[in-house]
Design goal:
heterodimer; A: mainly alpha; 2 domains; 4 helices; B: mainly alpha; 434 Repressor (Amino-terminal Domain)
């Protein structure tokens, strides 16, 4: 039994570290693809395509790694994740389209930026996780 | 669902953390089950039943009002 307990904790730690590594890799390759294009390889189609493809491949790795971690969660943790994701998805679609509509109808002076939506997704998901964790404590 | 998990755990001086480790769930899950905020899955209920050597219906009671 002791062995089983430590195996579970080791597996969870390993999956968390793996997800953190993929996320860090994805962030770095995103920065490399963005700033490399701006400052280093502007006009070099091969390097631009390569940096974007590497970022995309690492992004897919990050998604699969996140799925593996969620599959290791217990039933309550999965429920909390599911509820948080549902809230985040719903709010992102509704708020994202409203944001786009505000841009199209010129009710806001600036263009709707995808970066703002990504930031909104991140903040919404973290808030939903905190609230759902408190509710189920 | 009503349950006697907290009482049964106290009878053998077991902490939520210990029970969670043995059953293979988080301490938060054990706490939520004890507070009747969350109903465990059938496999988890069977693991709890096996640990306390009691039939499931002696630990969990279906509450039709919820």
């Amino acid at each position: 039994m002791e062995q089983k307990i430590s195996e579970q904790k080791i597996r969870r730690k390993r999956l968390s570290i793996r997800l953190a590594s993929w996320t860090l890799g994805w962030t770095l390759t995103m920065a490399a693809a963005t700033f490399g294009y701006k400052y280093f390889w502007e006009g070099d189609a091969f390097l631009i395509a390569l940096s974007v493809l590497i970022n995309l491949a690492i992004g897919i790795g990050m998604i699969l790694s996140n799925r593996n971690l969620i599959n290791d969660f217990d039933e309550l943790e999965k429920k909390i994740q599911l509820e948080s994701m549902a809230i985040t998805l719903g709010l992102t679609v509704v708020v994202g389209l409203t944001y786009s509509l505000l841009d199209i109808t010129n009710l806001i002076p600036m263009d709707a930026e995808i970066g703002n939506l990504v930031l909104f997704v991140g903040i919404t998901f973290i808030m939903a996780l905190i609230i759902n964790n408190k509710r189920n404590r | 669902m009503k349950n006697r998990l907290k009482i049964l755990r106290a009878e053998i001086n077991m902490t939520q953390e210990d029970l969670a480790d043995i059953i293979g769930v988080s301490r938060q899950t054990i706490n939520a089950i004890e507070k009747e905020k969350f109903d465990p899955s059938l496999p988890t209920a069977f693991r709890i039943s096996k640990l306390f050597n009691l039939p499931i219906e002696k630990i969990f009671e279906y509450d039709s009002s919820k």
